[in-house]
Specification:
alpha+beta, Phosphatase 2c, domain 1, six-stranded antiparallel beta sheet, 7 helices, globular
Amino acid sequence: MEYSYLTDPGKIRDHNEDSVTIVKNKSGEILMAVADGMGGHKGGEIASSIAIGSIGKRFMAISSVGNKEDAINFIKEIVSEANIFLYKYTTENPESMGMGTTIVLALLTKDFLLFGNIGDSSGFVFKDGKMYKITSDHTLVNLLVKSGELTPEEAKDHPRKNVLMRALGANMNVEMDIFDVETDVEGILLCSDGLTNMLDTEQIEKVIDSDLSIDEKLQKLIMKCNNRGGTDNISVAYLKKEGK
């Protein structure tokens, strides 16, 4: 098992509001997480950093997440705690009001694989050389697609495609979607929308399915995004379970 992550400000933004981590606890369980911050006056940087730091610290402090039910409760607990930290920060620092962050995470143990997300950062698995999206974006446009008011094609270039319906730090209470996934996958990929807005599924699959090292794959994905304009911060975390 190999894993790595890479984050890049892109070509347009003057700073990076994304934060990423991959951590392993004493039992060998692995937590991967990507956060895409938002908010002026460096608020996005602070929000994503607080969220990722808080979640990673809590995970490293335990020896094991326990069974699947315990793990789901643990994920909800640490995300709720991170949300409270963010909400408290904004009340104590009025200039940061309106800051928040997306969060997508994956928790891999020897017995199960769980994904969780809030916002529009994405989680995927790779199986038989194909990439499958696990998470569902909490955006206005995705809501309109689900209700049949927009087609997926119309959604791609919709002027309000980045309007979030759910984010960490926006309210005192937050709900994270949890996904229980079969463990027989070749790889796990988490990313901010800076990757998926620039590259389609086939382009990402082609890089992941290549014979490059994991670090080289991540570098190539970010290079491709920047070559297409790099309009946002780009973050990607990849774990190779088996295969490529």
